[in-house]
C-alpha cells in the first residue's frame, strides 16, 4: 500500500517549479509552492483535492476549512474562494493535486455500481473535508505514476480515476458526489443559477431570470444558494465581477475605472469601495502589492 510520502515525491517529481501544472492526464493538475502565500482569490470548480505536503486554509463566505496531508477536500459547485497556503518552504514545499470532477462520469459509475444516492433533503455547503484513506492515497499514487509512461495513460488512467471516484462515493463525501451527478437535485438547481450568473455577471442582476433558470422560488433559491456557496446570489455576482476586474488590471494594465466599467460597474466609486472591501486595498495599491509578491517569488 502506498503512503502519503510517495505521493509527495511523485508530485515533486512532476512539478519542478512553483505554480499550478496541467498534466498529460486529462482533468489532473499538480500544485507546488515553496513559501506560504498571501490570500489567493479564485473560483473553484467541482474537484477532488489532496495535499501531500504542507497545510492550507480555504474560506467560502464565512466558512473556513483547514486541511493537510491527513485530509482531502471535495468541491461540489463553482464557487469563489479565498485560499491561503499556511505551511511551505524551499526544503519542504507545499505539494498537492486536484482532480476535476465530471458529473456524467460520477452518474455512470453510480448506476454501474448500483450505488444509491445519499438521502439529503437539502444541499449542504459546497466544500467538504474528510479524513484521507489509504485506498485513496494508493489510487492517487497509481494515477500519478502513469505520468512516467504516457503510452499507458489512455487505458490505465481512467481506471485509476474510476477507483478514486468509487472510493469517494463510498466515503463521507458521498452526498456531495451524488448530488453533483443528478440534474434534478437541489444542488444542481443552485448550480444552474451559478451558471447563469457566470454567463451574465457583467449585466444588471435579474432575479426573475435567475429563479426561472434554477426552477426555484426567490426565497428557496436564496436559502439554498447561501447554504451551498456561503453568500447570496448578488454577493456571488459581485465577487465574480471583482475577480475579473482584478485580472484585467493585473494582466492588461488597464486603469481601475476601465476595469470596473468592463465588468458592469457604472459608478467608479462604488467599484473602488467594493474592491477594497473584498481584497483589502484599493485597486491600484492591491495590484502593486500582487506584482511585488510575484516578483519576489520569481527566481
UniProtKB/TrEMBL annotation:
Keywords: Transcription, Transcription regulation. One of its GO terms (molecular function) is sequence-specific DNA binding. Pfam families: AraC_N, HTH_18. It comes from Hyphomicrobium nitrativorans NL23. The keyword Transcription regulation applies. This is AraC family transcriptional regulator. SUPFAM superfamilies: Homeodomain-like. Residues 191-289 form the HTH araC/xylS-type domain. The keyword Nucleotidyltransferase does not apply.
Amino acid at each position: 500500500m502506498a503512503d502519503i510520502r510517495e505521493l509527495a515525491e511523485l508530485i515533486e517529481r512532476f512539478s519542478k517549479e512553483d505554480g499550478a501544472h496541467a498534466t498529460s492526464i486529462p482533468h489532473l493538475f499538480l500544485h507546488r509552492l515553496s513559501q506560504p502565500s498571501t490570500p489567493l482569490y479564485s473560483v473553484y470548480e467541482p474537484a477532488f483535492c489532496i495535499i501531500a505536503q504542507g497545510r492550507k486554509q480555504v474560506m467560502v463566505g464565512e466558512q473556513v476549512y483547514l486541511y493537510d496531508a491527513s485530509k482531502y477536500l471535495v468541491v461540489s459547485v463553482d464557487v469563489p474562494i479565498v485560499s491561503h497556503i499556511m505551511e511551505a518552504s524551499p526544503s519542504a514545499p507545499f505539494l498537492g493535486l486536484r482532480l476535476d470532477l465530471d458529473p456524467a462520469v460520477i452518474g455512470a459509475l453510480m448506476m454501474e455500481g448500483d450505488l444509491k444516492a445519499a438521502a439529503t433533503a437539502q444541499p449542504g455547503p459546497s466544500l467538504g473535508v474528510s479524513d484521507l484513506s489509504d485506498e485513496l492515497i494508493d489510487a492517487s499514487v497509481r494515477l500519478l505514476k502513469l505520468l512516467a509512461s504516457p503510452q499507458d495513460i489512455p487505458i490505465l488512467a481512467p481506471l485509476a480515476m474510476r477507483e478514486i471516484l468509487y472510493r469517494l462515493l463510498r466515503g463521507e463525501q458521498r452526498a456531495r458526489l451524488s448530488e453533483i451527478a443528478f440534474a434534478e437535485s437541489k444542488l444542481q438547481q443552485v448550480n444552474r443559477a451559478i451558471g447563469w450568473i457566470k454567463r451574465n455577471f457583467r449585466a444588471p442582476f435579474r432575479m426573475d431570470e435567475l429563479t426561472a433558470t434554477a426552477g426555484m422560488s426567490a426565497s428557496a433559491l436564496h436559502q439554498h444558494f447561501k447554504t451551498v456557496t456561503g453568500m447570496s446570489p448578488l454577493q456571488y455576482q459581485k465577487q465574480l465581477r471583482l475577480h475579473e476586474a482584478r485580472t484585467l488590471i493585473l494582466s492588461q494594465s488597464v486603469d481601475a475605472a476601465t476595469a470596473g466599467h468592463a465588468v458592469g460597474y457604472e459608478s467608479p466609486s462604488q467599484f473602488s469601495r467594493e474592491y477594497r472591501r473584498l481584497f483589502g486595498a484599493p485597486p491600484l495599491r492591491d495590484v502593486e502589492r500582487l506584482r511585488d509578491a510575484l516578483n519576489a517569488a520569481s527566481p
